Structure formats: C-alpha cells, structure tokens
Amino acid sequence: MAKKSKKQQPGGTPATVALTAAGVAYTVHSYDHDPSHPSYGEEAAEAMGVSPDRVFKTLVADVDGTLTVAVVPVSGSLDLKALAAAVGGKRATMADPTLAERTTGYVRGGISPLGQRKRLPTVLDDSAAAHPTICVSAGRRGLEVELAPGDLARLTAAVLAPVGRG
User: Fold this and answer.
1) DSSP 113
2) 64: number of CA atoms within 13 Å, CB side?
3) Helix, strand, coil share of the chain (percent; to 5)
4) Which residue stretches of the chain have pLDDT < 70?
5) DSSP characters for 1-53?
6) Four-point Cα dihedral 49, 132, 76, 86, nearest 10
7) pLDDT digits (tens, 9 = 90+) for 150-159
8) Under a CB-based contact definition with an 8 Å cutoff, are residues 91 and 63 in contact?
9) Is 64 left (phi over 0), alpha (psi -120 to 50) or beta?
10) Which of 72, 64, 56 is nearest to 123 (CA)?
C-alpha cells in the first residue's frame, strides 16, 4: 500500500531536492519495494493504485556515444530508433547499467530523470501530455514523485517525442 506525503525526510533525494528548489508542486508516493517483483515500474503502479500509463520509467540509452535519458510509460517499452531520431542521432542501444548508475548517481530501478549527477539529454514520451500528472522515480526503489508532465519537461529540458511503444 502506498503512502502519500508532501513531506520528505531532511534533504530528501536529489530528485526531491531539485523539485523543491525549483518551486514545483509534487507529491511523493512511497511503498515497500519487493526485490522479487519482476518489474520496478509495474510494481510501483500496482503499489500506488495508479494506471501504468501514468507511471513512467527512466531508461538510459547510448545514442551515437552520448548517454541519453528516455522517460516512457511502464505499460510499454522504449523504441530505440525513435529515441535516436528524437535527439538527431542515428543509432541507440541501451546503456551499460553500471555506467548509467555511475553517471546518474542513482541505482537501477531507482533512476530518476530529476537531480541526476550529470545532466543528460532527456526525451519524454509525448503520451505524458495526455495526463494532468505522471509519476516518475524519486531517486530510489519504492519512492515515486507525481508531478505535471510540463514541469518534468521544463526541469529536465526534455524533448517530447513518441519514443514509447505499447
């Protein structure tokens, strides 16, 4: 069962610190992460009672040698060709998980598009615009942040493009 709270422990995660510093309205959802669950994103949607179309996963890909963040609904998958096209690249592959963790400062299953150690080019699936709010990782497994997709796009300087596929 998810617990809702606007308050964070002192300092919070880099993602919540970035949101607070930017003055963006957001809600934190926490739940008990089950390490045996096969999908971090689907687990989050189930635990929060939110449609998987409104819960977005953060994936790190390598586009022509540049690490790039893709934020897509957990109900689908990432279209690597579309991601490459969205940032003017030719070829995209999933990034090495260790490199993604080291570059973003987050662990796999808890990578947030916000507050990353190194700001990476970001693409937000355009389906996000259909929702008043979406949920993304708040920077650790079992912690999600709900915010307006426009705020997420602005804070990450994201390009909106159809990069998810159902």
Assistant:
1) S
2) 11
3) 30, 30, 40
4) 1-11
5) --EEES--STT--HHHHHHHHHT---EEEE----TT-S-HHHHHHHHHT--TT
6) -160
7) 999 999 999 9
8) yes
9) left
10) 72
